[in-house]
């Protein structure tokens, strides 16, 4: 059912026997206007910084209650060596992709679009209440009922306008992990499709991994470190470094991304705290990864919803994007690169 705001708008223009002054039924226009309403954080997550453990050289921020030993692997098991930033290409490619993508019409009577957009969709009181966040569980609810349900609906509407040989249903699923980590401050989702044919069971394919972390668990500083160049020398991604508490959130997250993308046989990923977003992918061999700059919920032209839709479509193969090649370049102090 459409929101009361949409219902009133439609009723108003129907009574006037006229059409809205904007393209009220254009999916691409809605996407261009959609935004992420600020989360309403519990004061406890605004006032108390995460715990820190002492290291030999500096204080290393950690996660309270997280079992760091579970992140360790046998030497040589994780082969990721180099992570290189891809720069600001995502906004440019998003704009180009959406310009070339045929528009779709929104059926507001059936729509599950939940992100607010000026003059189109306002948040209801119930929707605003779901944005009150005080724990990992309430953060997951806020994210699922705003961002995920909207982007899933957008992907489905774009699919309806494309003729394909084998129809498929695409959705975000909460991943049930075999090896749950005690104290893990994240939720894991997968973008999957199920193709239906007359002669076989539905074929499930995982296109992208999505890691969500509450903003108090993975801060803007963490995102800055995460999105920088990494050269995982030696066996640091498997063994960490001593003491064991020096496994930082950034190192743990790269280890998690590696393990899950390898297990699920997908190469695309997104990491977000709702406020900050990074998009990336692995090489086929998993030895190299590339990741975007940090994009925020305040990003515009394109906005973060458009970029997330673009990256979801790219992960499905609906657009040209080459996986990174194995990188053997390392940064030099003062600039430049060396083999």
From TrEMBL:
Protein name: Uncharacterized protein
């Amino acid at each position: 059912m459409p929101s009361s705001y949409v219902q009133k708008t439609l009723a108003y223009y129907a009574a006037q026997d006229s059409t809205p002054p904007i393209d009220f039924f254009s999916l691409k226009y809605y996407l261009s206007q959609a935004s992420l309403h600020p989360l309403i954080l519990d004061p406890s997550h605004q006032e108390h910084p995460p715990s820190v453990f002492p290291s030999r050289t500096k204080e290393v921020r950690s996660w309270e209650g997280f079992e760091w030993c579970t992140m360790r692997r046998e030497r040589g098991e994780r082969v990721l060596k180099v992570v290189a930033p891809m720069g600001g290409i995502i906004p440019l490619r998003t704009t180009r992709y959406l310009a070339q993508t045929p528009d779709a019409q929104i059926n507001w009577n059936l729509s599950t679009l939940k992100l607010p957009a000026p003059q189109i969709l306002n948040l209801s009181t119930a929707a605003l209440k779901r944005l009150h966040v005080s724990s990992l569980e309430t953060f997951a609810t806020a994210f699922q009922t705003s961002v995920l349900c909207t982007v899933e609906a957008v992907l489905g509407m774009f699919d309806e306008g494309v003729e394909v040989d084998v129809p498929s249903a695409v959705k975000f699923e909460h991943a049930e992990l075999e090896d749950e980590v005690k104290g893990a401050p994240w939720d894991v989702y997968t973008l999957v499709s199920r193709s239906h044919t007359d002669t076989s069971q539905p074929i499930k394919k995982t296109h992208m991994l999505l890691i969500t972390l509450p903003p108090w668990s993975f801060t803007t500083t963490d995102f800055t470190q995460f999105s920088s160049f990494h050269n995982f020398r030696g066996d640091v991604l498997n063994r960490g470094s001593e003491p064991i508490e020096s496994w930082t959130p950034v190192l743990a997250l790269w280890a998690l991304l590696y393990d899950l993308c390898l297990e699920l046989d997908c190469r695309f990923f997104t990491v977000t705290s709702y406020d900050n977003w990074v998009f990336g992918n692995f090489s086929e061999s998993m030895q190299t990864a590339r990741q975007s700059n940090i994009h925020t919920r305040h990003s515009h032209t394109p906005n973060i919803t458009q970029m997330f839709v673009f990256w979801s479509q790219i992960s499905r193969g609906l657009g040209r994007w080459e996986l990174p090649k194995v990188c053997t370049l390392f940064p030099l102090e003062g600039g430049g690169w060396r083999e």
